[in-house]
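Hi again,

Forgot to attach this to my earlier email, sorry! This is the prediction with NDP bound. I've pasted everything inline since the attachment limit keeps bouncing my files.
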Amino acid sequence: MSEMQDYVDSVLARLEKENPEEKQFHNTVKKAFNTLVPVLEKNPKYKAEKILERFVEPERVVMFRVPWTDDNGELQINRGWRVQMNSAIGPYKGGLRFHPSVSVDILKFLAFEQTFKNALSGLPIGGGKGGSDFDPHGKSDKEVMRFCQSFMTELVRHIGPHTDVPAGDIGVGGREIGYLFGQYKRIRDAYDDAVLTGKGLNFGGSLARTEATGYGLLYFVKDMLDAHGYDIKGKTVVVSGSGNVATYAIEKAQEYGAKVVTCSDSNGYVYDTEGIDLDIVKDIKQVKRGRIKEYAERKSSAEYHEGCSGVWSVKCDIALPCATQGEISLESAKKLVANGVKAVGEGANMPSVIEAIDYFQKNGVWFAPAKAANAGGVSVSALEMSQNSERLSWTFEEVDKKLHDIMDNIYKNAAMNAKKYSDPDDLVAGANITGFLKVADAMIAQGWV
Ligand code: NDP
Ligand code: 2IT
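C-alpha cells for the complex follow:
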C-alpha cells in the first residue's frame, strides 16, 4: 500500500477512535479522502502540513439550549448547534437545518461537505452548518417564530456578515430566515443584511435564490449529459423530495423537455404517468404546507405509495435524489441500474450511500456528486451577499446567468481534475480534488492555524 494511502487510513482511524459515534461524518470523510490519494502522492506538502488532520477538526462547534413556548404556554426545550468548519477562503457559510434527526454527527458531515462545495463555487466562502432538532411539522406560525427568535438569541453572538453567514436547509425556508433576521436585527441594532441569505425579496434577498439549487442541479447534469452526447429532452426523470430543491429541479427539468414522473415527502411518493403537475405540488407544499399524498387525490393519473424508498423502483433514465442523506441504498441503486438508469444527479447532500455510489460508477452510470451538483444554492447565497454589500439588486436574468456560468465552471473543473488524477468520468474524485486543492493551499498560505 502507498505511503499516502497509509496516511489517509491513519487519519481515518484516529477520527473513528476520537468520535466513535459519528458514523455519518466518518463515512463522508472516508469517501472524500480516499479519492485524494493521487493528489497527496504528487504533493507531499499536504501530509507534512497535516492538512487532513486539520480538515476533519472543526475550527469551532457551539451547542446551545433553545427554550421556547408552544401555543399552550408550555415550555419546550430543543438543542441548537453551529459547526464552524473551515474559514480558509472566506467567512463560514452554510445552511441551518431544523429536523428531529439533527445531531453534531450530521452537522459535521454537512459542514465538511460544505467546505469543499463552497470552494468549488469559486466564490470567497468558507464552510459551516448548523441547526436544531426542532421539528417544524405541525407547528403554528407563531410557534415557529418564537422558536426562531430563541434560536437567534443565542446564535447572534457567533455570526456576522464577515464571520459566519447562515442560510436555509431542510425545514428552514423563507419564513424561518425572515424570523431569524428580525431577531438578529433587534439584538444587534444593525441592518447587517449580509448576515443571512435566502431573505425575502423586499428586505435584501436575491432573485433566483429560491430556484438556485434545483436550477443549478439541472445546469450541472445537462453539462454532464452533453459531454456524453445524451439529450435530456424526452427522457423520464425520477425526483425524490418536494421541498425547495426538488421543486425547482422539477421545474428546470420540465423546461428542458424531460418528463418528471415522481416526487415525494417523508411519508411516501407519488407516481404520475402523465408527468408531475408542478402547480399542484407548489400549492400543496408551499401554500398549504400539506402532504404529498394529497397530489394523488387531486390528479387521477397519479398513484400514491406509502414509504419513500419505492420511488427508486420506478423505471427512469435520470434519477435526481433531492430529499435527504442516505436515501439511495445499495439495494435502491441496484434497482435503478437494473431498470436502465443512465445518470444520477444529487440535489440533496449525500443522498447516495457510499456503496450505491460505487455501484453506479462500476455500472457506467454517469454520476453527479452533491458537493458539485447542488452548489448552485450556496453560490447564489454568495451573490446575495455581494448585492447586499453593493446595496444593489440584480435582475433575475443576471443572477440566473451568473448561476449558469458558475455551474458550468464547476463541471469543467471537476471534469478536468477527474481526467488529470483519476478516471475522466469520476466526477466524485474530480470534485473532491478541485475543492481540496483550493482550501488546502489557502490553509498552508495562512500558516499553522
Ligand atoms: P426542504 O425542507 O425544503 O424539503 C425537504 C424535502 O425532503 C421534503 O419533501 C421532506 O419531506 C423530504 N425529507 C426530509 N427529510 C426526509 C427524510 N428523512 N426522508 C424522506 N424525505 C425527507 O429542504 P431542501 O429542499 O432545502 O433540502 C433538501 C436536500 O437538499 C437536503 O439534503 C439539503 O441539505 C440539500 N440542499 C439544500 C439546499 C438549499 O438551498 N435549500 C442547497 C444544497 C443542498 P417532509 O415534507 O415530509 O419533511
Ligand atoms: O447545503 C447547502 O449548500 C445549503 N443548504 C445552502 C447553504 C447556503 O448558505 O446557501
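The pocket of NDP (ligand 1) is lined by residues 168-171, 173, 213, 241-246, 265-267, 308, 322-324, 347-349, 374, 377 (CB under 6 Å). The chain has 18 helices and 13 strands.

That should be everything now.

G.
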